[in-house]
């Protein structure tokens, strides 16, 4: 099932926008004031268009803009080094996360935990994402990529087009399911969407609705009437369904012990000790590193963060390379000249293809899976030369940062060569002054994404496997696909249909 917004949404937007003009009142913040102060909650959480609006505002007003009462948006060129680093240079306090921003209770998980709890959780989970752990997990990833290739081969031989967005979801949810629970959601095998996947995307929208209504509870009645009460309540309920399922799957995995399958190590193998799953590892201070309660709470985070984000990036990859056939041909030639047989496609070999990595980086720049980074709270500090009072909420929008012409030349064009080293024959000096330091698709600092290296390896394996086997093209009528996607921290995507052809020879 693909979740879609109501057909009458544009009319509903107009009605609620009119209400927002009456109700939302700006407050003083030391940054340029824009009309966006009336719309951040609406644009971010209901209509899903605010990252693009912030991009426009940064271009018009500069790197620090006012987007709401006591809220600012800061370009990542400033925000990442001055807000998201361990401690801003010369500042007395840290920029803490906003509790309950993503969902109620997120402060108990690695997403929004206070600093000390976050430190403990991150240290416990980090073992599962080490280079050694990823090498152990390679066989799991390869198994699912191979299954995807075979399923798509059957479709291609029948002359059927495929919704590549759907198959990317199947692949990465199945991979993360096996890495977390030692069992998949079986979507790749059956070719059908597991309820966990559909619930996930509806739940994302439900969390966004809840953020809006928590901020403006007096709008709950008109909001429910205009958007549809059943639609709102259904979206909000889906997170609970997935939480229950995740806790049950986590409990089952814990009961399996250190290795659920002989010779196959997953996330739990590293979270738990070497002797038995009953005796937990101790951290350096001798405290219990990750109690079962913490594992339960964070398993749903691992599944969501480790699947949808990579699936989004890969969906956009097929869109943008389908639209830029010259770059696609270069990449296909690189992959097909590197490998003579599919058995040679592995993490080490894929990591040697510079143009492949450049295409992945450019994909993440143009379509960062996290369109908005969860906000921070100013302790009372200077940011970009402006004093930002204590308590001010600070947002950084990667989509706006990565599309800012102050940071990147030709920001709206797919130019993988900007990521190549100067010694590469395809390097182009036109992009020599790009601000690559502000490119942080996995966030930055001590709360940066733990799964960064896992995601890069997954993407390299998947792209290499598919481009070695297939030629592909977008079906007509999807040229503006990227313009229609809505962002609610992550992207709720429309289908993307491609035609695959098993390549000759």
Automatic annotation (TrEMBL):
Superkingdom per UniProt: Eukaryota
Keyword Iron listed: yes
Alphabetized UniProt keyword annotations: Heme, Iron, Metal-binding, Monooxygenase, Oxidoreductase, Signal, Virulence
One Pfam family cited in the UniProt record for this chain: p450
Amino acids binding heme: 449
Secretion signal span: 1-30
PROSITE patterns, per database record: CYTOCHROME_P450 (PS00086)
Oxidoreductase among keywords: yes
Molecular function per GO: heme binding; iron ion binding; monooxygenase activity; oxidoreductase activity, acting on paired donors, with incorporation or reduction of molecular oxygen
CC cofactor: heme
InterPro entries: Cyt_P450, Cyt_P450_CS, Cyt_P450_E_grp-I, Cyt_P450_sf, Cytochrome_P450_monoxygenase
Family: Belongs to the cytochrome P450 family.
Protein name, UniProt field: Cytochrome P450 monooxygenase
């Amino acid at each position: 099932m693909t979740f879609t917004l109501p057909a009458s949404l544009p009319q509903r937007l107009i009605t609620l926008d009119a209400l927002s003009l009456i109700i939302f009142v700006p407050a003083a913040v030391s940054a340029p004031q824009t009309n966006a102060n009336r719309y951040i909650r609406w644009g971010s959480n209901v209509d899903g268009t605010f990252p693009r609006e912030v991009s426009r505002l940064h271009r018009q007003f500069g790197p620090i803009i006012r987007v709401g009462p006591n809220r600012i948006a800061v370009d990542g060129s400033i925000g990442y080094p001055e807000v998201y680093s361990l401690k801003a240079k010369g500042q007395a306090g840290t920029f803490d996360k906003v509790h309950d921003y993503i969902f109620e209770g997120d402060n108990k998980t690695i997403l929004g935990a206070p600093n000390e709890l976050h430190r403990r959780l991150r240290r416990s989970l980090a073992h599962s994402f080490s280079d050694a752990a990823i090498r152990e997990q390679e066989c799991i990833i390869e198994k699912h990529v191979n299954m995807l290739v075979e399923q798509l081969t059957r479709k291609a031989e029948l002359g059927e087009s495929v919704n590549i967005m759907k198959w990317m979801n199947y692949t990465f949810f199945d991979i993360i399911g096996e890495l977390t629970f030692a069992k998949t959601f079986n979507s790749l095998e059956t070719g059908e969407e597991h309820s966990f996947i559909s619930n996930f995307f509806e739940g994302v929208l439900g969390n966004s609705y809840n953020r809006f209504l928590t901020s403006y509870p007096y709008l709950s009645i008109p909001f429910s009437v205009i958007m549809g009460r059943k639609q709102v309540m259904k979206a909000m309920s889906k997170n609970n369904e997935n939480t229950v399922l995740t806790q049950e799957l986590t409990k089952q995995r814990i009961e399996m012990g250190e290795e659920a399958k002989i010779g196959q190590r997953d996330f739990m193998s590293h979270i738990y000790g070497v002797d038995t799953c009953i005796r937990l590892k101790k951290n350096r201070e001798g405290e219990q590193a990750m109690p079962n309660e913490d594992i339960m709470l964070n398993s749903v985070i691992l599944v969501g963060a480790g699947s949808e984000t990579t699936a989004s990036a890969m969906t956009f990859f097929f869109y943008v390379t389908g639209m830029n056939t010259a770059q696609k041909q270069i990449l296909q030639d690189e992959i097909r000249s590197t490998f003579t047989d599919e058995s040679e496609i592995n993490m080490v070999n894929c990591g040697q293809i510079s143009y492949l990595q450049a295409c992945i980086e450019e994909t993440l720049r143009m379509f960062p899976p996290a369109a908005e980074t969860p906000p921070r709270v100013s302790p009372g500090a200077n940011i970009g030369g402006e004093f930002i009072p204590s308590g001010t909420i600070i947002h950084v929008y990667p989509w706006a940062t990565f599309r800012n012409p102050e940071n990147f030349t030709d920001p709206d064009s797919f130019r993988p060569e900007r990521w190549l080293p100067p010694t590469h024959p395809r390097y182009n000096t036109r992009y020599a002054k790009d601000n690559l330091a502000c490119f942080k698709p996995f966030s930055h600092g001590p709360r940066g994404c733990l799964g960064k290296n896992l995601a890069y390896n997954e993407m390299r394996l998947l792209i290499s496997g598919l481009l070695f086997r297939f030629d592909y093209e977008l079906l007509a009528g999807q040229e503006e696909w990227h313009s229609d996607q809505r962002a609610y921290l992550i992207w709720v995507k429309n289908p993307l249909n491609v035609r695959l052809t098993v390549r000759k020879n």
